[in-house]
Every structure is written in C-alpha cells, then in structure tokens.
Specification:
The complex is a heterodimer of chains A (about 350) and B (about 325). With about 350 residues, chain A is of the alpha/beta class. Chain A has 13 helices and 7 strands. Chain A has helices spanning about 20-45, 60-70, 85-90, 95-100, 125-140, 160-170, 200-205, 215-230, 265-270, 275-285, 290-310, 320-325, 330-345; strands spanning about 75-80, 145-150, 175-180, 185, 185-190, 210-215, 240-245. Chain A has a 5-stranded parallel beta sheet with strand order 1-2-3-7-6, sandwiched between helices. A two-stranded antiparallel ribbon of chain A has the order 4-5. In chain A, helix 1 (about 20-45) runs antiparallel to helix 10 (about 275-285), helix 2 runs parallel beside helix 3 (about 85-90) and helix 4 crosses helix 11. Chain B has about 325 residues and is an alpha/beta fold. Chain B is built from 12 helices and 14 strands. Chain B has helices spanning about 5-20, 45-50, 60-70, 90-100, 100-105, 135-140, 150-165, 215-225, 245-255, 270-280, 305-310, 310-325; strands at about 1-5, 25-30, 55, 75-80, 115-120, 145, 170-175, 180-185, 195-200, 205-210, 230-235, 240, 255-265, 290-295. In chain B, the strands form 4 sheets. Chain B has a 5-stranded mixed beta sheet with strand order 9-11-10-13-14, sandwiched between helices. A 4-stranded mixed beta sheet of chain B has the order 5-7-6-12. Chain B has a 3-stranded parallel beta sheet with strand order 3-2-4, with helices on both faces. Classes of the chains: A alpha/beta (about 350), B alpha/beta (about 325). The interface of A and B includes residues 108, 135, 137 and 327 of A.
Chain lengths: ~350, ~325
C-alpha cells in the first residue's frame, strides 16, 4: 500500500513526497477540517429535516479532497452519491449542494466552468461515462482528465469493469478512484470479491492500478497527480484504490452501523483519522495552530448557515419547470400537459 | 435522385451528417472496417477515418455510457446496438441516464445522441435479434423513438435524429433493409420527428401502423378495396411522441380505427394510440378501436415466425370486424 505519512504524521516515504508549498499544505488542511464540519452540520441539518438525502463523508476527507486537490479547473468530475465534497471544492456553491440533498433541480445546475455532473445514484454508471469523457478529451487533445469515484461495493458492478476496460482500450484520459471504506451498506468488502485488493482489478483491463492509504492525504494527492499526468501524456488510465473508512452510517436514511460494525473496528480506524495525522505533520513543521483550525471551523459553520438560508430562499419547483427541462423543445404530449399545468399553477 | 434501399439511405444519411458536423461520431461493434453487420456503415471509416467511425469492445452498456461521456465533451454520438434485443444490457445507460441527463442537470447537460439499432421479424434470425422492444423505450420520458418504414423516410428522419439535441432511438426493421428500392434525393433533407404520414387516403376505416406493418396495412388496404372498404393508412414514423393530431383527424373522418403493430399485445405502443383515440374522439367512433398484434408469448422460434407474426390477413379480419360491428 502506497503511503507517505504514517498514523503519527511522520513521513515514511520521502522520495514520494509531492511538491507542495506551505500554502498548499495549509489549504489542504483547511479543506479537510472544513469538510469534516460540513459533514457534522449536514448530519444535524438532516436530523432537523432541513436536508434530505445525505451520505456521510467523515473519515474520507483525505481520499476525497487529496484526489480533488490534484485536479485543474479543466478536469471533469463524475462523482458518486457520496462525493459532494469534491464538487464543492471544484466550484459548486454550497447552497446548491444543499439543494441537491433536498431534491431541487437547481442543485444540479453546475455553474459555467465547473466541469462536473451531479452525483450519480446508479452505482457504476459514472464509470462508463468517465471512459467517454476521457476519450472526448483525448480526441480534442485537451490537457484535461475525467475523474470518477465509486466505493468498494461498486467495483463488483459490470459497468465498473466495462468502464475501466473501455478506457484502457481507447487510451482515455481518465482516472478511476475506488474509495474502499470497507463496507457497502452492511456488506463487508470480503463479501464483494475474493480478490485481495480492488486495485488489482486494473489487471483485467490492462491498466495501471495502485492501492493507496486513503487516510493519508499526501499519498492520495501524489497518486492522483501522477495518474493525471500519465493520462494527459497519453499513457492511459489508472485505477486508484484508496483504503479508507466512513465513521458515520451509509446514509442518513435509517442505516445503523452498529448492526454490522464492531466498536473495535471503529476505534482502529479512528486512530487513522486523516485530519489528526495531517495536523500532527503540519504542527511539526510549525504550519498549523489551534487558532487557525478554530477559524476554519467558525468559517465553515457560518458558510453552512448562509447556504441553508439561500437554499430556503430558492423558489419552489413547479411542474412546468420540470417539463421545460425535459427536451430542447416540448414534444406534442408535453405541450398539451404544459398547458394543463400552467392553468393549475395560475390559480 | 437515386434508387436506394433503406440501408443505403441510412448510410447516406450518416455520410451526410459526418460531412456536415465534425462532432458526429459513429461507433459500435463491427461498424468500422467491417462496415457493420448489415453494411449500414460501409465505407464510412475509409472516408472519414478511424477518429470518426470506430469499433468498440463488445459491451453494450459500455457503448451507452461512452456515448454519454462523449456527449458531455461536446460530441454528437451515433452509437449502434447490433440488435435491439441486446438493449437490456444498456437499459440503464439509455433509459436511466441519457434520457434523463438534460432534466437531472436542470437543462445544462443535453445529450445529442442517436442510438441506431436493427430489429424486426421475418428474416429468420436467432434468439433475441428480432424482438420489438420499442414499447420499453416509448415509456421513458426524455427519449424520442423513431421507426422508418421506407428509404425516403429513413434518410430524412435519421438526419433529423442526428441533429436533435436530445436522445433519439432510431429503430431499423431488418426485413425492410433491402426489401425494396425507391427514389431518394441525393441532397440532404430532413423530416420532422413526431409527424406521421398518411400513406393512403380512405374513408371507411383508419389503419395506424409503423415499421414493417405499414406495408402489411397497405397490402390489406388493397384487398379491402376489392370488397368495397376504403382504408386510410397512417405511418406513425415516430412512436414517441405519437402524432395524435393526424390520427384524430383521420378517425373523425372514418369513424373507425384499427391499430397495427408487430409487437405482442402487451407490448408495443398500440394501447397508447387506442387510449388517446377513446379520450379524444369517442363521440366519432362507430365501433371500438381494435388492435392487430403478435400474441403475448416470447418472440417466436425461427420456424414459427410465419404463424406468429401478424400479417395482412390478420388486418383484413380485424377491419371486417370493425366495419361490421
């Protein structure tokens, strides 16, 4: 397993150390702390009924943000349902992420220049689409990649294999990240496959595969950066398996992890917390303080408050809005129904 | 003008659009150097290069997903599914994904994709080649489903389908590929989607059909004429959305209708047409609207096609029932 920082925050692989400035290192820490707070607030808001669908992210900050930090604005993200943080750091306004959670189409309207699509609910569908975006970039000779994310369970899907295999056959400019958080809802990764790693599934597609410590933000960043470079250099796609953990439930829709996880397992993984580890690393370099961390926490809380307010102020959806988003031009059946609903809405 | 078979008209339409728009890409299993299992893409890779016309690995879901990804980067994909019976492998990519993308993105990520695929019986294909599955696609909001019955329509409808900025399922009946030739203009032209055509005017009964059944209806109409029954034949050309205006205008004139499809009774789109007629024109009807369809079994084993597929005799029989109701 590729690792740069151990659990104590010590550099164990100096040669692989990515070229990041002090500012970059601090920015990465800020983003991880901010995202942890965002997760806590999102869970609370969900419990209050002020958010809808929510898939907790705590524990996966290094995996999600380390990989996103290696991207440029030109790169295209095809996220899974748990990968909202990557979208936010790629430029999706927070209030829109909240609208996605609530179920409002405006949450899925990526602002101009944010190269991404909204989180994919059909596990595996994003993988074949990523092969297509990556092939599109290759055909257009763009200095950009498509990056996608799925979980350990997702690697059992047919579309997972087809996607990485197509990308390999076409030399698509693509990076596939499997965030192995050990469980697909209640099913442990051992029950998904007899394969010892998910990274080795890359062999079936004839592409590069690497297993990374997904709790080590520097390792995830370095692996993604390298995979990105290989892709734009025409050396083909890469499969990255990040070994990570979700501290929370699968989603907020009634999943109870105590039914399938032990306390020992939770505490083992808590010792690997990506934020604790990176904090130690930065503190040893005198780049991080409690004050700075508190500042980030306060900022995150304020932003969440403002964003939820903006989400509240977004006009309610009408059936005619939904109809208008179906086709470039309304077909005859919808034209007729549009008139009916326009009439209803005018009352 | 040139005499073309339907398959030649289809190739001509693709050639036209490859020339017109550099974003048009054609791909699928064996569509490249081989020119397609039916020769639909013959010569296109030689003329436009492997960047534009290319083979894919054998995986329909991958083809569907890749089409979406290419559309996200500004291309206009025209993928082929070798036989439409294989659509089940890519139902998510088509119905679960591309059909919904414009909507799910709040009108920011359109999918200008045309999925071409052969289907249809009467040519003794093996299992799951000939099944009529247009009904599945017609139930999916976000798609348009086009089924031409002749070379002229095939060219105009395919060019228009490729130019649409929303996904179109373009189904090509295998029996019609080379069964006859007709005059097809060499220049480009389009036929609007969602518009039916009256193929034969009549006053006593309206026959609504699409695909190979259009020809069965025309043959039935000739026989009926001998018995003094004047049948109007409507070729839907697009089965989603259906051009109900043309159907209703005809029914208001003839006061009787029979809807004809090759698909099983529980499948296809005939039931939609019957519903719409009864909702909008019940006071014009002298008799119930009847359907001519295949029986509700799995598609026939090859040797049973002749007794299983609906034909012009079935149509004559149903029309007589309606006329003598």
């Amino acid at each position: 397993m590729f690792q740069i920082l151990n659990e104590k925050g010590e550099v164990v692989n100096e040669d692989a150390m990515p070229d990041l400035s002090d500012e970059d290192l601090k920015e990465i820490m800020k983003r991880m702390v901010y995202t942890r707070i965002l997760d806590q607030r999102s869970i609370a808001l969900n419990r209050q009924g002020r958010l809808g669908f929510y898939a907790p992210t705590a524990g996966q900050e290094a995996s999600q943000l380390g990989s996103q930090y290696a991207l440029t604005k030109e790169d295209f993200i095809l996220p899974g349902y748990r990968d909202v943080p990557q979208l936010i750091w790629q430029g999706l306004p927070l209030y829109q992420a909240f609208l996605f959670s609530r179920g409002h189409f405006k949450g899925n309207q990526m602002p101009e220049g944010v190269n991404a699509v909204s989180p994919q609910i059909i596990i595996g569908a994003q993988i074949t689409q990523t092969a297509g975006v990556g092939l599109g970039f290759k055909k257009r000779k763009e200095d950009a990649i498509a990056i996608t994310y799925t979980g350990d369970g997702g690697a059992s899907q047919g579309d997972f294999y087809e996607g990485i295999n197509f990308a390999g056959a076409f030399g698509a400019q693509a990076v596939f990240v499997v965030q192995n958080n050990q469980f697909a809802i209640s099913v442990p990764v051992e029950k998904q496959s007899a394969a010892q790693t998910i990274a080795q599934k890359a062999v079936a597609a004839g592409i590069e595969g690497i297993q990374v410590d997904g709790m080590d933000v520097l390792a995830v960043y370095a692996a993604t950066k390298e995979a990105r470079q290989r892709a734009v250099d025409g050396e083909g796609p890469t499969l990255i398996e990040t070994m990570t953990y979700r501290y929370g439930p699968h989603t907020m829709a009634g999943d109870d992890p105590t039914r399938y996880r032990t306390e020992d397992m939770d505490s083992d993984w808590e010792e690997k917390d990506p934020i604790v580890r990176f904090r130690k690393f930065l503190e040893a370099k005198d780049l991080w303080s409690e004050d700075e961390e508190n500042e980030v926490i306060e900022q995150a809380k304020e932003d969440v408050k403002a964003a939820i307010k903006e989400a509240d102020n977004t006009p309610k959806q009408k059936v005619t809005d939904l109809m208008e988003n179906m086709y470039e031009e309304l077909p005859s059946n919808l034209k007729e129904q549009y008139e009916e609903y326009k009439e209803k809405e005018s009352k | 003008m040139a005499q073309m078979t339907m398959i030649q008209a289809i190739t001509d339409a693709m050639r036209t659009e490859l020339k017109n728009d550099e974003n048009v890409l054609i791909f699928g299993e064996d569509v490249g150097q081989n020119g397609g299992v039916f020769r639909a893409t013959e010569g296109l890779q030689d003329e436009f290069g492997e960047e534009r016309v290319f083979d894919t690995p054998l995986a329909e879901s991958g083809i569907g997903g890749m089409s979406i990804g290419l559309a996200l980067t500004g291309f206009r994909p025209v993928p082929e599914i070798q036989f439409f019976g294989f659509v089940y492998e890519t139902m998510d990519a088509i119905n679960g994904q591309m059909a919904r993308y414009r909507y799910r993105s709040g009108n920011t990520r359109p999918m200008p994709i045309t999925v071409r695929s052969p289907f249809g019986g009467g040519v003794h294909t093996p299992e799951l080649h000939a099944d009529s599955l247009e009904g599945l696609m017609a139930q999916q909001p976000g798609l348009k489903v086009v089924i031409p019955s002749n070379p002229y329509d095939a060219k105009g409808l395919l060019i228009q389908s490729i130019r649409e900025n929303d996904p179109v399922i373009f189904l090509e009946h295998m029996k019609l590929y080379r069964s006859f030739r007709e005059e097809v203009p060499e220049e480009e032209y389009t036929i609007e989607l969602g518009k039916a055509e009256v193929k034969r005017e009549g006053t006593d009964v309206t026959l609504v059909a699409y695909g190979a059944m259009v020809h069965s209806c025309l043959k039935a109409a000739e026989e009926l004429e001998k018995d003094g029954v004047s049948a109007e034949v409507i070729d839907l050309r697009t089965v989603s959305p259906v051009d109900y205006d043309t159907i209703l205008a005809s029914v208001e004139k003839t006061n009787r209708a029979v809807v004809v499809q090759e698909a099983q009774k529980q499948a296809g789109i005939a039931s939609n047409v019957v519903s719409e007629i009864q909702e909008k024109a019940i006071l014009h009807l002298e008799a119930p609207v009847l359907r001519v369809t295949a029986p509700d079994t799995v598609y026939a084993f090859t040797q049973a096609e002749e007794v299983w597929l609906p034909n012009h005799n079935d149509i004559v029989e149903k029309v007589n029932k309606v006329v003598n109701f």
